[in-house]
Amino acid sequence: MRTRKPLTVLAAAAIAAAAWTAPVQAQAPEGIAEFATAGAGLAVTAPAELETVPSLVPEREDFAFLGAPGDLVWVAGSADGTAYPTLDASAVDGDLTLGLDKVEGPGDAWLYTFTGPGLAEPLASTADDSTFTLPGGTTAMVVLAVDEPGEYRIELGAREADRGHGALAPRSQAAAATATAVYSLTAEAATTEEAATIDTDTGTEAGGAQTATSCEVVADGHVDIGPRFVDGEWTVQLRDDRAAESQWRELEDTVLHIPDTALFPIPEGDFGFLGEPGDEIHMLPQVQASGIVWPGWNTQDPSVIEGVPGAVDWSLEAVDGPGAFTLFLTGTFGGADVLFNSAEPLPQTIAVPQNTHAHGNWTFSEPGVYRLTIAFTGTTGDGTTVTDTADLQVAVGDATDPNAACSGDGSGGGSGGNDDEDDNGFLPTTGTGWLLWGLGAAALAVVAGAVIMFATRKRRNATAAGTPGDADGN
User: Fold this and answer.
1) Who is most buried in 2, 39, 150, 363, counting CB within 10 A?
2) Distance in angstroms (rounded) separating the CA atoms of residues 425 and 435
3) According to DSSP H, which parts of 286-351 are helical?
4) Which key words tag this protein in UniProt (predicted)?
């Protein structure tokens, strides 16, 4: 008999997103399984083959379900290097119950995710027939791993709950409300030494993104803003995770473009700081929405983890734009925790804990070009204060030309970080992009930013004598 586990982190994320309606005309995100309601039934789109990379089980208690520290496991991504390890139920009306079955193969398979503080949490396994619940309308970041070399055929089965009452569909409807995806994968025999070499030498390891040197307009996909040491200099950059191999970009050579599909009505309740209920604003939500860019922030680069033992201060110094900018977290029960608000005196500062990756709601009250002047400040192990300031460039609205926001000439560059070694990096090197670089607060932690930021000490530097960050940035 299967044991069923509710995926509470995803449920919390679903509640957090409930105050907002998903934008229309959005493209479906790539992943290892995309589910959709098809009439009275359930459809699934998934790659037929998965490629694997040998990895070593980290020396952490939360990974004990995979084996002892140092044991070999094989982590899977898509064979074509384009599908991210996500389970996408954004087009499903009801909750899904999912489980794994082994059709053939020498070992067992595990599907796992990460909870708020970045701890690995097993969801389903062929070893114990466990299942879990994926709330309808959500997308979950997951990892699929096997524990023995050889040929596998792994079946992912999904069953949709009753759309009206949240219970499993009646037996008479079960056939129409179920869907399966079967993956073929080969785990090539490897030694622990070879796996360790992959962990340290490939460009897709934790923090191992290459640096781009061209002005780029980012309109969808995942990006993060954060500090790193580049040739020994503390530098604020943007990590672009849209491709299989991530790239570090200079902020002056990058523009985030927010289309009108990201227009949302301001909800009732604790959102008066955004404007009047019902008025529309452009928003990049805390939970990923396909078809629009999903920006986050992090302190996960290995050079930062190794060089700065404590929290990093992130400051909003000024805002230049036609309207107001806010960044806030949606709480588990729908409230708002405002991190930055340009209508209030600037600068404003929050403390981001070490090895953090988080997301929030980014809002812009008017279309046009915005420049958000931000600074990241840290203290190294020897007590030296390091800081860097840069402008995040944003073009808001379909009518706004992204090129008008870009101040760079594409000449900015930096180191790829391939020489950095990170023991936390434990995800595949094919088709996993931004998930490759660290488990400190990865995967589901990014959609549960409120949980992460409970540990964040907000420090507002503005005083009563300060002036609001208006359109002139003063």
Assistant:
1) 363
2) 9
3) 302-307
4) Membrane, Signal, Transmembrane, Transmembrane helix
161 and 266 belong to one structural domain: no
Q: In whole angstroms, what separates CA 163 from the centre of its chain?
A: 28
Tell me the three state secondary structure of residue 195.
helix
Q: CA nearest 26: which of 395, 284, 396, 255?
A: 284
Q: Clarify whether residues 216 and 190 are in a common domain.
A: no
CB atoms within 10 A of CB 70: 12
End position of a domain, from candidates 195, 216, 244: 195
Answer yes or no: is 392 within a domain: yes
User: Hey, what amino acid is at 189?
Assistant: A
Tell me, yes or no, whether 465 lies in a domain: no
The two structure tokens encoding residue 129: 């027939």
Cβ proximity of 357 and 224 under 8 Å: yes
- Please check whether residue 105 lies inside any domain of the structure: yes
Q: State the sign of the Cα–Cα–Cα–Cα dihedral 242, 33, 26, 396.
A: negative
Q: How far apart are CA 97 and CA 132, in angstroms?
A: 6
Distance CA 84, CA 59 (A): 25
Contacts of 395 (CB under 8 A, 6+ apart): 217, 255, 256, 257, 258, 368, 369, 370, 401, 402, 404, 405
Structural domain harbouring 250 = 202-459
CA 270 vs CA 140, 351, 439: distances in Å = 27, 23, 32
> pLDDT tens digits for 244-283?
778 889 999 999 999 999 999 988 878 899 999 999 999 9
Considering the domain architecture, whether residues 214 and 339 belong to the same structural domain is answered as yes
Q: Judge if 189 and 208 occupy the same domain.
A: no
- The verdict on residue 164 lying in a domain is yes
Q: Are residues 254 and 156 in the same domain?
A: no
Residue 341 sits at φ, ψ, to 5 deg, of -150, 110
Same domain, 281 and 142: no
pLDDT in tens, 341-386: 999 999 999 999 988 888 999 999 999 999 999 999 999 999 999 9
| Rounded (5°) CA angle 76-81-84 | 65
Q: CB under 8 Å to 191, separation ≥6 — which residues?
A: none
pTM greater than the 0.70 cutoff? no
413 DSSP assignment: -
Residue entry with tokens 């996500």: 86
Q: How many residues does the structure list for the chain? A: 474
CA–CA gap between residue 328 and residue 311 (Å, rounded): 19
Cα gap 104→96, rounded to integer Å: 24
Structural domains of the chain, count: 2
In a shared domain, residues 250 and 149: no
- Among 195, 219, 243, residue at a domain's last position: 195
